[in-house]
Amino acid sequence: MTMTIDDFISRVLDAMPATTPQRSQIAVELRGHIAERMGDGGSEADVLRQLGDPVALAESYLSAVPMVSAPLGERVLAKLIDIVLVALVMGSITGLLALVLPLEVMVPVGLAIVLIGGSFMFGAYTIASECVWGQTIGKRVMKLRVVRETGTRISVGQSLVRQLPMFLQVYMIDAMFALFTERRQRAFELLSKTRVVV
């Protein structure tokens, strides 16, 4: 199956975080560049082949956008916002169950829901949000986003690796790395080749 111009441009844009400034401008510029090359006699397939890999092209566009590492205080606030949101959801679920379950059953069930369910929900929410939108609600409020070191969108695998410290219960050790690394990256961010930027 051959790639069309629209497919090519979509792949370039899909490699960029949804919050990338001037995404629509990049699409218009790229479409014009392709049209210009085709006007000089190149076929669609030849022009797209010359432009190369859409992800590499996205990386070259993103290299012109300066990436500023997120301040640690803003990262902590973003995490706290996310924790509060998940706690509210888990508290609501527990409250609804308290209406239908007797108290002697509700106490252990409620604790299990809040502790175990909350941990899994927080992990799933963070992984999904970061790989789909590049940010959680907390990061969006603080105007932060998670990207690969090249500036492109992170994959599900990278998002999962970023959250391993929470599941392995080594989050504080992981977070301390951010105090000593040049780009304020946690240990598992270094491992996953991701970073949090403004």
What is the structure about, briefly put?
The protein has helices spanning 5-14, 23-39, 44-51, 54-62, 72-100, 103-132, 137-141, 156-168, 171-176, 187-192, and strands spanning 145-148, 194-197. It has 198 residues and is mainly alpha-helical.
Describe this structure in words.
The mean pLDDT is 84. The longest helix is centred in the middle third of the chain and has 30 residues. The protein folds into two domains: 58 residues, no CATH class; 126 residues, no CATH class. The protein starts with a helix and ends with a strand. Helix 5 packs antiparallel against helix 6 and helix 6 packs antiparallel against helix 8. It has ten helices and two strands. The protein has 198 residues and is mostly helical. A two-stranded antiparallel ribbon has the order 1-2.
Q: Topology of this protein?
A:
Blueprint: H1 5-14, H2 23-39, H3 44-51, H4 54-62, H5 72-100, H6 103-132, H7 137-141, E1 145-148, H8 156-168, H9 171-176, H10 187-192, E2 194-197
Antiparallel strand pairs: 1-2
Helix pairs in contact: 1-2, 1-4, 5-6, 6-8
Keywords:
single chain; 198 residues; mainly alpha; 2 domains; two-stranded antiparallel sheet; 10 helices; 2 strands; elongated
